[in-house]
Amino acid sequence: MAQAxxxxxxxxxxxSGRLGQALLxxxxxxxxxxxALSSSAxxxxxxxxxxxxxxxxxxxxxxxxxxxxxxxxxxxxxxHGVNVYGDRTPEAITRSYEINAFSGWRLLELFLQSxxxxxxxxxxxxxxxxxxxxxxxxxxxxxxxxxxxxELSKRTLGDLVTLRRLDSPCTIRKVILGPxxxxxxxxxxxxxxxxxxxxxxxxxKGQRNIVVTINPLTFVMFPLKEFLVSSYFxxxxxxxxSKNGQT
Length: 247
What we know:
The chain is of the alpha/beta class and 247 residues long. It is 40% helix and 16% strand.
């Protein structure tokens, strides 16, 4: 279902990065009220002539400090990440999983709690929330990225999101991106601004899996991977209601 962003409050993590800023610009251009969630203490502006936007400083491992703010957010875009490339030290493993997987998962859970508390019943008898989460998991979910720890940690986040979608109180969109030029990937081919525009446009069209890449295989491999993993989770896990003996 297509949606308008006019007047929506949208918070974006990784806001000081190239894609984060591009997403904030694209969202603002669609009428959204944007909030930059950044690890940098510097207040962000989207261009040299504009006024600074609302910037909230947080750190990985301290996601709880954002709980009150997330109550006021309509759309949370989880976009932060790190790439340690060929490093395989214990420190690199911990850093990759903590930033790329577990931090994003903790933020998502906080946001889903706020969506749960704001649910409303529709005429069909189902319970829905107008809130949304967009999670940038990368095409590393299904394709090699020539950076093993990046692939492993992003796949972990992707699988957690797939699992969480089964019982989510609101829509969760996955953002599956190919190589774009950024601080993490200076050799990236795509423009961060163009990527952000396509992400926002596809989200407004209602796409749950937003794929933006130059690799045609991703358009085949990712949906297949998502279907198989989701089906596996449906068969071998139980919903909280079933576990509690509820119908």
